[in-house]
Design goal:
This protein is α+β, with helices and mostly antiparallel strands and 112 residues long. The protein has one domain: P-loop containing nucleotide triphosphate hydrolases (Rossmann fold, 3-Layer(aba) Sandwich), CATH 3.40.50.300. The protein contains three helices and six strands; from the N terminus they run E-E-H-E-E-H-E-E-H. The strands form two sheets. Strands 2-1-3-4 form a four-stranded antiparallel beta sheet. Strands 5-6 form a two-stranded antiparallel ribbon. Strand 3 and strand 4 form a beta hairpin. The longest helix has 8 residues.
């Protein structure tokens, strides 16, 4: 399996609350991957960690087989601005964010 993008053991806690616990998955070139779950399941937290907006506590992210450090993820992955639920503050320069990662950005980084 030729993985374009891979996540291994990603975890994030907010105090005693585990928002993400050992999340792992891979995305192959041309594949469309959906993420669904109820409010509070950690979907936005996952994408914020993947895009480097929020640091993960543990785990690894790689693109094209190369590790991507948290500080470098924002140059390779990004989230599209859109509306946020009421009362939620944006983490990106006053703009609301949506859990949408551009596979094109990952594709470009893997071919560099």
């Amino acid at each position: 399996m030729n993985l374009l993008f891979e996540v291994n053991g990603l975890s994030k806690r907010f105090g005693r609350i585990a928002a993400l616990s050992d999340v792992s998955f891979g995305v192959r070139a041309g594949e469309v991957l959906g993420l669904i779950g109820p409010n509070g399941a950690g979907k936005s937290t996952l994408f914020e960690c993947l895009a480097g907006v929020l640091p993960s506590d543990s785990g690894a992210v790689s693109a094209g087989g190369r590790p991507i450090e948290s500080r470098d993820r924002s140059s390779l992955l990004f989230m599209f601005p859109t509306a946020s639920p009421p009362g939620r503050r944006s983490l990106c320069a006053g703009r609301s964010i949506s859990p949408s990662v551009s596979s094109e950005a990952v594709r470009r980084s893997a071919t560099k």
